[in-house]
Amino acid sequence: MPLKPLGLVALLVAPLALQAQDAHNQTFEVASVRPQSGVAGGGSSTGTRFYRPGSTLRQVIQFAYDLSRVRLEGGPEWIGTEFWAIDARSLSPATADEMRVMVKGLLADRFQLKTRVESRELPVFDLRVTRQDGTLGPNATPPNCTRIGARSFESLREAGEIACGPAGTVGYRLDGTSYHRLYGVTMSELSRYLEPITGRVVRDRTGVTGAFDIDLIFAGDVGRLRGAPPAPLPDAVPLPTALAEQLGLRLESATGSVGVLVIESVSRPTPN
Predict the structure, then answer these.
(1) What are the tens digits of pLDDT across the range 151-174?
(2) Which strands make up the sheet holding 212-219, listed edge to edge?
(3) pTM summary value
(4) 201-204 and 114-129: which strand pairing?
(5) Which strands sit side by side in the sheet containing 72-74, from one edge to the other?
C-alpha cells in the first residue's frame, strides 16, 4: 500500500462539513491578515480568538471547511506556498463549529474565496476491525482527556487538563519511527486523521462506538527532517502492520463517492 509522507502539522480532523452552516449571524468583530515569511507553530481556534501566526491559505481553508488535504482541489499554487498571519476575534466565545463558519466568512471577505462541492468516484480506504470479537488492540485505551467545547487550549493547560482530539503528540525519531498520540478520538476521527498519511479518503467501517486514546507507532520518513543523519533501517513496522498489531484495525482498498471541495476563485488580500 503506497503511503505519502506525513507532515508535522496536526490536522483538524472533525466531521466533513462542506454544506452551509448557520452560525446565528456570528462574525468576527476584528480581523487582521498579514503575509508571513514562513510557517509558525501555535495558534488558537476556540473561545473568542482565531489565531494562526503562520499558516498557508490551504491550511486555513481545510480548517474552515473541516476537511483533509485529499478532499480539497483547485486554486493557484500560492495557496499552499505562501504564509499568512491571521488574528481574528469575536465578541463572545464560539464553539468549534461556530468558529469554522466565521472563518468561512473571513475567507470570503478577505480572500474572495469561492468554492463548489463535487461528488467524485475515487480510490478510498475502508477502516475495519481485524478481530472477530470486534475489540480493538492494546494501544486503544479509555480516554483521559477533556472535550474542549468553547474553552481555549490555554485554559485547559492552566487547569492541567488534556484536550480531546486528533491534535495530540506527533513526531519523528531518528530510528525511523513515527509516533502518534491522539486523545479521546472516535473511529471516525481516526479515519480522517489517517487520510493525509495514506493519501486517500479513509471511511470508518469499524462499527466501533465511543472514544479512545490512541498510540500508533510505525515506520516514518526521517529523511525529511532538517539536519537529520541518514536513517538506519527502522525497527518500526509499516503502517498496515502497526494498525493491525497495535489497534486491531486494517485498511481495505475500495472505490467510493467522495465529496470534494473545489476552489473556483481566490485572491490575495490587502494586508492590514
Answers:
(1) 555 666 677 677 777 666 777 776
(2) 140-141, 212-219, 177-185, 165-172
(3) 0.74
(4) parallel
(5) 72-74, 249-265, 114-129, 201-204
